[in-house]
Amino acid sequence: MNPSSDTAPKKTGLSTTGISIMPSMDTSISTGAAQNTDPLAAYEKPGYKLQSFVSHFIRTEAGDIPVIKTRPGKDDLFSSFYVRCGINRHRYAVAPGLYAVGSPDKTSEVLVTANFKLTFDHLRKELEKINAWILVLDTKGVNVWCAASKGTFATRELVARIKAVSLEKIVDHKQLIVPQLGATGVSAKEVKKLSGFRVIFGPIRAKDIPAFLNNDKKADKHMRQVTFTLYERFIITPVEVQIVLKPALIAALILFVLSGIGPEIFSFSNAWQRGLLCVSAMVSGIVSGAVITPVLLPFVPGRAFALKGMITGSIVALIILILSSAAASGASGFAALFLFSVSISSYLAMNFTGTTPFTSPSGVEKEMKQYIPVQLGALVLAAGLWMYSAF
Amino acid sequence: MEDLRYLDDVSTLVLDQEKCIGCTLCTQVCPQSVFEMQGNKSQIVDFNACMECGACVNNCPTQAIRVSPGVG
Question: Potential cystine with A275: which of A259, A286, A372, B30 (Cβ 3.0-4.6 Å)?
Answer without folding.
Answer: A259
